[in-house]
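Hello again,

I reread your note about wanting to compare the complex against the isolated chains. To keep things tidy I'm splitting this into two emails, and this first one only covers the full assembly. Below are the input lines as submitted, including protein chains and any nucleic acid or small-molecule components. They are followed by the predicted structure of everything together. The single-chain runs will come separately.
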Amino acid sequence: MPRVTDAGAQMTPTVGIRCVVNGKTIEDSVEPRTSLVDYLRHGVGLTGTHVGCEQGVCGMCTVLVDGVAAKSCLMLAPQADGHEIRTIESVAPGEELHPLQEALRDHHGLQCGYCTPGFVMTALALKDSGAACDEATLRAELSGNLCRCTGYQNIVTAVAEFLGVEEHPA
Amino acid sequence: MILPPFEYVECTSIEEVIDALGDGDSDRDARIVAGGTVVVPMMKHDLLRPDVLVSLERVAGLEGVEQSNGEITIGALARHREVSRSESVREAAPMLAQACGLVASPVIRSMGSLGGNLCYGESASDPSPVLLALNARLHVSGPNGTRTVPIEDFFVGFYETAVGPEEVLTHVEIPRQPRESRWTYRKWTPRAREDKPLIGLAATIRPDGAARLAVGGINPTPVLLGSASVRASDSDLSEREVNDIADAAAAEVDPFEDLQGSEEYRREMVRVWVGRVLRALREVEVDR
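Full-complex prediction:
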């Protein structure tokens, strides 16, 4: 399994971690300076979680940590220890799309698709939280995920359909 | 992005944290990490280059909200989302629940802790002016034991707080607010709602007439508007009084400037928003 190393810098002491990623228990040792998103992509080989702003603004790197949406660029890999991580790869492991992915496709909720994994994970966390949701709440909950293609309306429509939320025309 | 190397220490008690922070000497920069929403971006921007990160995640006793006789104690690790949804906070200090529910975006609110927000020392913080208006007390532990810092003494400079490099904030305590107090918090973000406030204004008026107005995003630190608070106390908030208080508030601030607004603009926003907040308070039906 490839490890994150920085050829230009001296190797630093590593920290042991044990976590569950998409249902699979992983034991590894990581450099503390590795962000969780870099670890998932380079260390675990799950490249579906994307890297955007790397400062917690854009939501590209959203994953679920113990069922709650988290920005994995702001988490250090050692902080995954003892937690259960879910990434986009767990959403539709077979050939069939997840209903939310279907809804995004049906409503043209993506163009380049770079932001889509983040939106999917944020929306799944919202669904799993079981919280009552109306359109305003849904829009607020998605406000930490940026899309530079669609203008959001089609994403909101798709997620609203998936959550069974009634949308009111603007 | 690959950060420069650092050591990572995960503690399970306050004693271990204080031990890991060391004696605060400048050769070894040890920093606390909780939710990571402040320290990690600062490291990525190379504004901080700590030798050691001390994690609070597994420290016992820093979580949660407790209520006793209307007095609220919030652990430094309590996340903004948790505070905003806490029944106890909504009942005893609803203005804090409201402000914590306006911090950044939802996912950041469920990651970032209230203690981290305060220790960042950011002027444009939503909870900070609210805690100033509510007269909060902060509990800080260090090698010499535990001390209580009144919130008015907590913010000491631009991104600087009373918490020393060898200390850790453990709890935030909010004294019981008299029943039938009126309160409001207003946040103005010219661009997007997940931004930091250009101005965040908190105000309470107690049934005995005592008023406290506090503002974030204007001065280099969140501050109590002392002169405006005195003028607003025992006032029936006639239109003329509201205008006088707004003028007094604009006169007493010492705004910084940045890309979001000049000194003049920030001063004018203080005048505008103090007026709006006081007019809103005039209309408020008191709780209970």
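For quick reference: Helices of chain A lie at 36-43, 99-106, 116-129, 135-141, 153-163.

B.
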